Amino acid sequence: MDIQRKELPAGDGDPFKGDPNFMASLARGLEVIQAFTPQRRQLSISQISQKTGIPRAAVRRCLYTLGKLGFVYAEDGKNFQLRPRILSLGHAYLASTPLAKSTQPVLKHLSEMLNESCSIATLDGDDILYIARASSSRIMTIDLDIGSRLPAWSTSMGRVLLSALPEEQLTDFLGRITMIRYTPQTVDSVAKLREELKRVRQQGYALNDQELEMGLRSIAVPLINPEGTVVAALNVGVHAGQVSADELRSRVLPKLQEAAQELSLLLK
């Protein structure tokens, strides 16, 4: 499952062209880092260039610099992968964010009570970014952990977060996303997605029934700060063969909502 990323604009279409404060080399380096995903852990220069739109020569220089700094390596000299030191880039954010620091005990308790995997994510660009997770078992073919990203439009947490966006921002988002039919269940049009987001906004939760991956159901609710702003989403993921959609609503949703209320007290 490849997550679509926006390419760094180049040439005359670059909105930052002429901005003396914008460091194009730094932006390209960050794009190269973000090209690596759980599904594509090893990438060649050509693959990164194709994925990001950055010229191969520039990709080569970025990888050389990142390699010297200890962030990437290529055992065979051709196929690059990230090194553990890359975690230091996100550690400062996760360590200093009250939400990420304080929610783990509540999340762990919820996971143990339901015997299911629970997560918290925020909206980051067109993706959701996992900032806390308590896993009881692996229910997806890809590993999810803190720092993982998934397309917002196709996930329960993403839909909760998107449903809270102002209309102008939501319209802009819907106008630029690329919708991929991951399973036969996946919502396959912007019109249907907009209707689903309207439903999520009205009912206060999102239920994703095997749209991202067959065999996976999840339900999510918003985390709301004292000012009434949705700042993150909390979800529970289950095996579709073990927990029905009706059971998610009747048994899991009330516990999820209770945990969300408790967590909201930590957002002051």
From TrEMBL:
Span of domain IclR-ED: 85-268
Domain named HTH iclR-type: residues: 23-84
GO function terms (MF aspect): DNA binding; DNA-binding transcription factor activity
InterPro entries, sorted: GAF-like_dom_sf, HTH_MetabolicPath_Reg, PcaR_PcaU, Tscrpt_reg_IclR_C, Tscrpt_reg_IclR_N, WH-like_DNA-bd_sf, WH_DNA-bd_sf
Keywords from the UniProt entry: DNA-binding, Transcription, Transcription regulation
One Pfam family named in its UniProt record: HTH_IclR
GO biological process, one term: negative regulation of DNA-templated transcription
Protein's name according to its UniProt entry: Helix-turn-helix domain-containing protein
SUPFAM superfamilies recorded: GAF domain-like, Winged helix' DNA-binding domain
Record-linked PROSITE patterns: HTH_ICLR, ICLR_ED
Organism from which the protein derives: Dryocola boscaweniae
